Amino acid sequence: MDQITQGLATHFKNCPNKAGFFALPGNEEVMVQIKTRAAPGSQWNAWNADAELNKPYCFKPKGDQDIASSEDCIA
């Protein structure tokens, strides 16, 4: 089993369905990070690893006033 697969197996055995990070077995200086995806339409979409660069991400909770400017968004 390679080091990444071994580390992932250990992580998910100890922390099922959870994000986190671990040091690569055999090289403690290398860290592997596991991230969960933001729900579609949530305020965290811009932080997904595959989020489009230079695209404005705007989030308005229900009941809040409309976003007046794209400068109020994350880009």
Description:
The chain has 75 residues and is α+β, with helices and mostly antiparallel strands. It has two domains: 1-36, no CATH class; 39-75, no CATH class. 16% of the residues lie in helices and 17% in strands. It has one helix and two strands. The chain has a two-stranded antiparallel ribbon with strand order 1-2. Strand 1 and strand 2 form a beta hairpin. It is elongated and about 50 Å long.
| Alpha-carbon distance between the two ends | 40 Å
The percentage of residues in β strands lies in 15-25%
In terms of per-residue confidence, which ranges show pLDDT below 50 for 5 or more consecutive residues? none
The largest beta-sheet arranges its strands as 1-2
Q: What form results from the Cα inertia axes?
A: elongated
Mean pLDDT: 87
- Care to count the β-strands? 2
Main sheet makeup: 2 strands, antiparallel
Order of helices and strands: HEE
* CA-based gyration radius: 18 Å
> Structural class from helices and strands?
alpha+beta
Layout of strands and helices, then pairs:
Blueprint: H1 3-14, E1 20-24, E2 27-34
Antiparallel strand pairs: 1-2
Features:
2 domains; 75 residues; 1 helix; alpha+beta; elongated
Summarize the structure.
The protein has one helix at residues 3-14; strands at 20-24, 27-34. The protein has 75 residues and is an alpha+beta fold. The chain has 2 domains: 1-36, no CATH class; 39-75, no CATH class.
